Every structure is written in C-alpha cells, then in structure tokens.
Amino acid sequence: MMPFFYFKKHTLFLLLVVVSLLVNSNTHLQANDWKGQLQQANEAYAQAKYDAAVDAYEAIYQNGYQSATLHYNLGNAYYRLNRIAPAILNYERAKKLAPYDKEISHNLNMVNKKITHNIDGYPVLFIKKWFTAVINFFSSSIWAILILLGVWGAMLLGVLFVKSANVAQKKRAFSGIIALLFFALLCFGLGIAKYQTEINKAAAIVFNPQLQLKNGPSDASADIIPLSEGVKVNIVEEVNGWVKILLNDGQEGWIRLKDLKRI
C-alpha cells in the first residue's frame, strides 16, 4: 500500500504544476491580448486617428501594461494632438524605462521647447542655487567614488609619511593627507545631500494651464510665480491635498496635488 505522505506529497506537487500552468497560460493570453491592442493602437496612429490611438494606448496602460515603446507612442499621439503636458509625461515615463534611448530623449527635448516657464519670482539665494548646482553635478554613486579616491589617496600619503625620512617630504605628505581628507569629507556631505534628493524625489508634470506657485499650502497663501502646464517638478512634501514642489531653478512652493501627475 502506498504511504499517505507519499500520496500527499505528489498531490501537492501536481497542484503546484497545474497552478503554474494556469498562471503561465493567463500571462501568455494577456501578452497576446496586449499585442493585439497595441497593434490596433499603432494602426490608428498610422491612419492619423490620434484620438483613437490615445484612447487605445491609455486603455492598455490602465490595464497594467507598461513599456518604453507604449509610453513613447502615447507621447507621440498626444504631441500630434498638441496636448503638451501628457506628451511630456509619457516621454518622461518612456525615458524612465529606457534612459539611453536617443529617440525618446530627442522627442522629449523637442516638446519641452514648447513650454515657457517664467522663473521671475521670489529671488533664490545665490548660495542655494550654487549648492543645488554642485550636488546635481554628479550622481550619488559618483560622489561615493570620489570619497573613496580621497580616502585611498590619503592612505597612500600616510604610508609615504611614515616611511619617509625627509622632513620636507613628511610635511608635504601631511598637508596632502589633510587636503584629501577634507576633500573626502566634502564629497561625503555633497553625496549624502544628493542621495537624499534621489530617494525623496518624486518627479511629476504640471497639468494645470493656469496655476500659481504658492508660498504655503492654502489658497490664501501669497503667489510666488505662475507655472506653465507641462513643467517638470519634484515633489518634496505632501500636506492635506497640497504638495511642496522643487523647481529645477531651485525655487520651492506649493500647489494642489490634483494639478500634477506623477511620472
């Protein structure tokens, strides 16, 4: 007689195989369904039926499918309809999935030239602009490499300092150690600041053609500057339906959450 545990083990194995086959079959069917919908959307675009193409691409996206090609084509369709903000949004989403695609970058740069953003508002302190420019000069990983180079250089000079019998050479080595450690410490601070912006940054696109950047999270707050539809911003904080945003020029302010869409 076959042992019960043997039967139970093999039954469980068969159930897992059946479930796996069902999941794979469903995934395959979904993939085929998306391919069919994509083909229909592409045909609508090729026939200059841009409204129909937008509806078809958006339906695919809302059903959970994402790809750089989908967002790129959707951005093209919106651009043909002269709907700049959603075109930029989808080019940005495409670039996020394929950051080195030249066609995506070209179209994004081209459509960004169609928006105007007046940055004349409350003056931004020079030191803040300078600091923002410096930390954005490298990614956090590059700052980390610079830190390591500074530390390694200081260690090599430390070995020279210990082994050298020449007093003048020891002084130069000691000065170099201090300079490289200061350099590494400076890079550490800048790298931490850059890393914080990278992990906290949630990029979004403004979707309101008539919008004022506020100095507080309320309609009663003073206006800072007008914002153009299609401008890319970074979300810093969210409070009761309002978001604090950071512009590329370093200015900060508040707008309503409903007036933007996350990339």
Structural features, described:
With 263 residues, this protein is α+β, with helices and mostly antiparallel strands. The chain has three domains: 4-112, Alpha Horseshoe (Serine Threonine Protein Phosphatase 5, Tetratricopeptide repeat); 126-199; 202-262, SH3 type barrels (Roll), CATH 2.30.30.40. The chain is built from eight helices and seven strands; from the N terminus they run ααααααααβββββββ. The strands form two sheets. Strands 6-5-4-1-7 form a five-stranded antiparallel sheet. The model is unreliable at 21-29 (pLDDT under 50).
Q: What's the topology here?
A:
Blueprint (H helix, E strand, L loop, with lengths): L3 H43 L3 H13 L5 H13 L3 H14 L4 H11 L13 H10 L4 H24 L3 H34 L1 E5 L4 E4 L8 E5 L4 E8 L2 E5 L5 E5 L3 E3 L1
Antiparallel strand pairs: 1-4, 1-7, 2-3, 4-5, 5-6
Order of helices and strands: HHHHHHHHEEEEEEE
Number of structurally distinct domains: 3
The geometry reads as elongated
Question: What class would the helix/strand composition place it in?
Answer: alpha+beta
Q: Name the helicity range.
A: 55-70%
Low-confidence stretches: 21-29
According to CATH, the homologous superfamily of the largest domain is Tetratricopeptide repeat domain
Taking all residues together, what is the mean pLDDT?
Answer: 82
**Total number of beta strands:** 7
User: Which sheet architecture does the biggest sheet show?
Assistant: 5 strands, antiparallel
How widely separated are the two ends? 62 Å
CATH third-tier fold name of the largest domain: Serine Threonine Protein Phosphatase 5, Tetratricopeptide repeat
Gyration radius from CA atoms, angstroms:
27 Å
Indicate the proportion of strand residues: 5-15%
CATH architecture of the largest domain, by name, is Alpha Horseshoe
Overall CATH class of the largest domain? Mainly Alpha
